[in-house]
From TrEMBL:
Organism of this sequence: Lentibacter algarum
Names of the cofactor(s): pyridoxal 5'-phosphate
Origin: domain of life: Bacteria
Protein name according to UniProt: Aminotransferase
Documented EC number(s): 2.6.1.-
């Protein structure tokens, strides 16, 4: 009999972390590697946020806090949701967690029973299905078509809902595609959800502020107020504020659900890092001028990558509305063979050959539930992106 839990056998390690680790190992061994797999900004945390953390340390704010966050940060979340999203919450409806991932995990652990289904559009963030499995639920994947810019259509959502569906996980702008839903596109989905009152909505808004070309972000409870009582609106400071390592996420929703999430957190990690909470308070309440500056850089990088990838033989790359990813299709390359003899029969074979033959690390599409494609994070320097895309162009041209 195995010593390890049977639950653990249901999940797999994160492919994005595995690829980033492999790229790091190759680079440490002296190989010329460009990693485009990590999903974090290359910008430093803004100075005023770092200063708030230093001030908190100097003020001795280094003790335990309430299990799910300090009152000041909960109020700042309420203020942010009212200011940016037109949503009204009280601090009792807010949970602060150790990153956005813990918020999602706590909610799933607090609500899922055996047999419960969680509807997840694909391409999806790699952790969604495995968190559902860890919580005892069943992930149900609803593929979004490339020709629809990787956005789920209302009829596809309708067809995927069953009497067992407990949650619908929604993410816009998306990791891994960068696709963002307009108000009308999201309203079409919420109209479907209104017809299924047993389905709750988990909205992962982590990339809210990373929106380009005038794209206007919106979130489900904002678009359809009738869904407010069965929506958990989730967000955090990791991406827009360049605070990935600070590990602060938050969610707002019904008091009963937030209380259940608090119970789980109180018996697992307890409070998020106290210093990071005071830094997050400054992130939400302080100057946001740097976001527009960073987005201008991201927009330039996105355009560069999209143009160079679309110049590759056999690759089609949509131009996304937000985040810092592109998700090009390699349907035109399947069946070809690389210069070193690798048959490109899957997107994983493509990514493996690309890394070994050119030193460019990307994440294969199967990790995100929709093939054949791959994900590039363009949250790195222009020089690295040009070099990497030039290598990808040469690799594609060499396939026979």
């Amino acid at each position: 009999m195995s010593f390890l839990s049977k639950t653990l056998s249901r999940v797999k390690p994160s492919p994005t972390i595995a690829i980033s680790t492999k790229a790091g190992e190759l680079k440490a061994a002296g190989q010329d590697v460009i990693s485009l797999s990590a999903g974090e900004p290359d910008f430093d945390t803004p100075d005023h946020i770092k200063a708030a953390a230093i001030a908190a340390i100097n003020a001795g704010k280094t003790k335990y806090t309430a299990p799910d966050g300090i009152p000041e940060l909960k109020q700042a979340v309420c203020d942010k949701l009212a200011r940016d999203n037109g949503l009204s919450y009280t601090p009792a409806q807010v949970s602060i967690g150790t990153g956005g991932k813990q918020i999602l995990y706590n909610a799933l652990m607090a609500t899922l029973n055996e047999g419960d289904e969680v509807l997840i559009p694909a391409p999806y963030w790699v952790s969604y299905p495995d968190m559902v499995l860890l919580a005892g639920g069943t992930p149900v994947i609803a593929p979004a078509k490339a020709e629809n810019a990787y956005k789920l259509m209302p009829e596809e959502l309708e067809a995927a809902i069953t009497p067992k569906t407990k949650w619908f996980i929604f993410n816009s702008p998306s990791n891994p595609t960068g696709a963002g839903y307009t108000w009308d596109e999201l309203k079409a989905l919420t109209d479907v959800l209104l017809r299924h009152p047993h389905v709750w909505i988990m909205s992962d808004d982590m990339y809210e502020f990373l929106a380009f070309d005038g794209f206007k972000f919106c979130t489900p409870a904002q678009v359809e107020p009738k869904l407010y009582d069965r929506t958990l609106t989730c967000n955090g400071v990791s991406k827009a504020y360049a605070m990935t390592g600070w590990r602060i996420g938050y969610a707002a929703g019904p008091v009963e659900l937030i209380g259940a999430m608090r119970k789980i957190q109180s018996q697992s990690t307890s409070n998020p890092n106290s210093i990071a909470q005071w830094a997050a308070l400054e992130a939400l309440n302080g100057s946001h001028d740097f976001i527009a500056e960073n987005n201008a850089v991201f927009t330039r990088r996105r355009n560069l990558v999209v143009d160079m990838l679309n110049a590759c033989e056999g690759i089609t790359c949509p131009k996304p509305e937000g985040a810092f990813y592109v998700y090009p299709s390699i349907a035109g390359l399947i069946g070809k063979t690389s210069a070193q003899g690798t048959l490109i029969d899957t997107d994983e074979a493509f990514a493996t050959a690309l890394l070994s033959e050119t030193g460019v690390a990307v994440v294969f599409g199967a990790a995100f539930g929709l093939s054949p494609a791959f994900r590039i994070s363009y949250a790195t320097s222009d020089e690295a992106l040009v070099d990497a895309c030039t290598r990808i162009q040469a690799f594609c041209a060499s396939l026979t």
